Amino acid sequence: MTEPKPRLDCAATGPLFNANAMKLGVFGLNVASAGALTTSPDRHRISWDQNVRLARMAEDAGFEAVVPFARWRGFGGETNPWGESFETFTWAAGLAAATRRIALVATVNMMTMPAVAAAKQLSTIDHISHGRAVLNVVAGWMEIEMRMFGVGALGHDDRYAQGAEWMEALYRLWTAEEPFDLRGKYLSIEGGLQQPKNVQSPRPPVMNAAFSTTGHAFAARWADIAFISPNPDKPESAVEQVRALRAMADARGRDMQIWVATSVAGAPTAEAARAYVAQYSGPEMDIGAVENFTRLMMGGTAMPDDQRAAMLRHVAAHIGGFPLVGSYQDIAGKIAALSEAGVDGLCLTWMDYERGLPDFIANILPLMEKAGLRRPFMDAAGPAA
């Protein structure tokens, strides 16, 4: 396959491109137990009506996006977390018709769907939503899921090489006005064309979460919104990671937003927040699911027993990402520090979305507004029907 020409920038007309210094997205709403591997009776369970209600709640509070996990199998154990999920393209299309202003993200593993299908499906969502569609592309490897799709084993760097061909095809499908052919090592397209074009011209935004050096190089080349994963024990790592990723993008003559996936547990006091997390990740931990997660997603871990126990508790409590745990003031301060480090947006998960989302809106969002991280939101369109 020929080297792609410098790609076009995405449209900057959708909800992700407003003036808020810190954008907000609800992450993993479509997946059971998205935020914690726990047997807690309050763990996240999913229904379509619940997803619509919570997406509208986030929209009415001014959140910029709802971002789904693309999952096909769970982690077993007692509760099989992530085992129940809504497929992300149809999920985003349904929410597009049920909302007015929030961005609807569809997530796809590039090894599981042809670029031709993804381009057309995302474009359809863009029309349903009148220009609010975003595509989140991933290249992760979970063997039991890949076997379901008949995908042969690919090494880490090979997955991103395949992804680069996939992205070239995607962008050409979104922008080409005449049929084209592409032939690469991993994919082949004859007479590729997609009509109608997207509402967002020249194309919708693309999001990517990749944390290796190869993954960040991929994101710097292809993504408009990319994720970093700061070390919670090393706050300065956020500055370092932002600086490195922006340098990769700058070298390609590009700019991007940088986001962080987070796990939120707030309370009036730090002690209450820590006790809450300790309960659902300690006595209520789904140990079988946590063990399976570390084996399937982290390659297993060899370490002393006390370190391993601490690691398992961390996985159980903060599978959704960077921990934002503490009093409401504590969390607002941590968010401000991430903003100071150059982070543009947060994807938020909770153990219990029914409790966590309204709690965040009532108690943390006003503190973010007071700190100048967000503007008070007024939806001119009014509430969703």
From TrEMBL:
Keyword Amino-acid biosynthesis found: no
Keyword list, A-Z: Flavoprotein, FMN, Monooxygenase, Oxidoreductase
Top-level lineage group: Bacteria
InterPro entries recorded: Luciferase-like_dom, Luciferase-like_sf, SsuD_RutA_monooxygenase
Pfam families: Bac_luciferase
Residue ranges constituting the Luciferase-like domain according to the UniProt record: 22-344
GO molecular function: monooxygenase activity; oxidoreductase activity, acting on paired donors, with incorporation or reduction of molecular oxygen
Statement: the UniProt record of this protein carries the keyword Flavoprotein: yes
Name recorded for this polypeptide: Flavin-dependent oxidoreductase, luciferase family (Includes alkanesulfonate monooxygenase SsuD and methylene tetrahydromethanopterin reductase)
